[in-house]
Amino acid sequence: MVLINDLRVTFKTPGTDIEALGGISFRINAGDLCAVIGPSGCGKSTLLYVLSGLQRNFTGKVTIAGNPVKPGRRKTALILQDFGLLPWKNVFENAALGLELRGITREEQQQKVAGILRDLGLDEVRSLYPGQLSGGQRQRVAIARALALDPDLLLMDEPFSSLDALTRESLQDILLEIWRRTRCTILLVTHSIEEATFLGQQVVVLSPRPGRVVSIYMNSGAGNKSWRHELQFHQVCSHLREKLAGGIG
Amino acid sequence: MRRTFYALLSTAVLLLLWALLALIVNKPALPSPVIAFKVFFRELPGPLWKHLLVSAYRVLAGIALALATAVPLGLYLGRNQRADRFAAPFVYTVYPVPKIVLLPVVMLLLGLGDAAKIFLITLVLFFQVLIPVRDSTRYVPRALLDSVVSLGAGKMALYRHVIWPTVLPEILTALRVASGTAIAVLFFAETIACQEGLGYYLLDAWTRYAYREMFAGIIAMGLLGSFIYVVLDWLEHHFCAWKYLS
Predict the structure, then answer these.
(1) Which residue among B143, B152, B165 sits closest to A74, beta carbon to beta carbon?
(2) Are the Cβ atoms of A86 and B144 closer than 8 angstroms?
(3) Do A185 and A153 meet the contact criterion of CB atoms below 8 Å apart?
(4) Hey, which residues 36-95 in chain A have their CB within 8 Å of chain B?
(5) How far is B128 from B177, CA to CA, in rounded Å?
């Protein structure tokens, strides 16, 4: 589904060039849930920007479903760190924005979005504005907006990092359910070891800037809600912590 | 309801202070509000109404023209760094010059009629609207733009869904600040070689030492200002409702 080969991104700034990604390669099979973990500033977000087509200055080969990555791919959905909701649109309008931009009629938007909002427990707040919602609700709206587009590739940048522990866990569970139901490919970027271990069937560990792949861990336990309570879960966390520290050392 | 109550309360306090001051000063130059309002309502059906309408027309036309020119230009400059680099020196040189000093030139070119006065108001408002529109366009949060682009927005859709809603409250705030200046400039423009408008009415009363009429004119000017303010307030609550949520 996603193939990344020797991806390098360098930001030109006055004075020096900053290398954000120093040649990374890995692949994600269709329908897999992959977590990328690394220290702050290792280029995790840059990776998502490249995959979503927003960052076009890179070298190396990046393909999605066999085609070179390019802006405006209709089946790719991106959820950014601070959710990117528009404060002047209510929950429904925010969730329907992608459909609106694609010229889908109001009725179809209504049909499509109403079901998604119901599934995510947002039915009651559909006419509230982002400023009136809790962090968890805002994140669910961002997910609803992405799902409305029927994506086959969902890119998420630190989606749950600003939430409290319980909200975070419930949203991780929701994400698992969505993933199981839609079977879309998910790439999730995080700095939380527990989150990567719980969600990622494949965990890619990056080094500090310039980001390079330190290790790829096939995490067969992930994909079940009960996984976070198992003993092995904590062993995987320790293992990844060592890899992460190794990358830093 | 609450807003109306406070508006009435503050008007009452203002009138009370005025009455007290008039009592203390006790000179014909400062008539009490009771007398001033009596004269205002006596004059209103007559010449004062006509002057008020003429002034209102000039201010509103000036606002409309300034919006029609400054808003599109500000939106454009805010998103095009190169064009802004070219325009900025011009803007910053002309902006601080008090536009009223251009009145003789403007009158020479546009004559003594409405056109010169409207142009002057437009000129004053133009810069006061242009700069906040350009700046708020430029500083639209990057994450908002990126996330909407990733949903498939083109250039026009970005303006419509992201940039315009960000800029609109700024425009209304700028207008609120600038409308006071606009009325002051209008007053000045109407006192020179002019036979119509509140500026003329005020200056005429002043030179005749008709202080009661002068204050009737001041009341009319105050009402014109508050009318614009109330309209802007309504627009903001109507079109930017999301800013006023609890």
Answers:
(1) B152
(2) yes
(3) yes
(4) 49, 52-54, 71-72, 74, 76-84, 86-89
(5) 8
pLDDT tens over chain A, length 249 residues: 899 999 999 888 888 888 888 889 999 999 999 999 988 888 888 999 999 998 888 999 999 998 999 888 889 999 987 768 999 999 999 999 999 999 899 999 999 999 999 989 999 999 999 999 998 899 999 999 999 999 999 999 988 888 888 888 988 999 999 999 998 999 999 989 999 999 999 999 998 888 888 889 998 888 888 898 888 999 999 999 988 887 765
Q: Do A98 and B152 touch (CB under 8 A)?
A: yes
Distances from the Cα of A98 to the Cα of A108, A127, B213, B226, angstroms: 12, 17, 61, 41
* Helix (H/G/I), strand (E/B), else coil: A34: strand
Residues of A in contact with B157 (CB under 8 A): 101
Instruction: Determine the residue type at B228.
Output: I
Q: What's the CA gap between A27 and A3, in Å, rounded? A: 5
Quick check: B144 contacting A, CB < 8 Å?
yes
Q: Cβ distance B51 to B223 under 8 Å?
A: no
Q: Which two tokens stand for residue B76?
A: 């454009």
> Which residues in A lie closer than 8 A to residue B151 (C-beta atoms)?
77, 97-98, 101, 145, 149
CA distance A39 to B12: 62
Cα separation, A44 vs A190, in Å, equals 8
C-alpha to C-alpha distance for B165 and B59, rounded to whole angstroms: 25
CA B65 to CA B106: how far, in whole Å?
16
Tokens read off for B228: 């614009």
Question: How far, CA to CA in Å, does B113 sit from each of A137, A187, A237, B50, B58?
Answer: 59, 67, 80, 16, 11
Nearest by CB to residue A84, choosing from B146, B157, B246, is B146
Torsion of CA A119, A125, A131, A137, to 10 degrees: -30
Residue at B177: amino acid letter: V
The C-alpha atoms of residue A76 and residue A53 are separated, in whole angstroms, by 9
Can you say whether residue A189 is alpha, beta or left, with left for phi > 0 and alpha for psi between -120 and 50 degrees? beta
Give the distance from residue A88's alpha carbon to the nearest chain B alpha carbon, in angstroms: 5
A187 C-beta neighbours (distance < 10 Å), count: 27
Selection from B15, B137, B153, B156 nearest residue B81 by Cα: B137
Is the whole model's pTM more than 0.90, yes or no? no
Q: Which two tokens stand for residue B94?
A: 């002309």
Other beta carbons less than 10 A from residue A101's beta carbon: 19
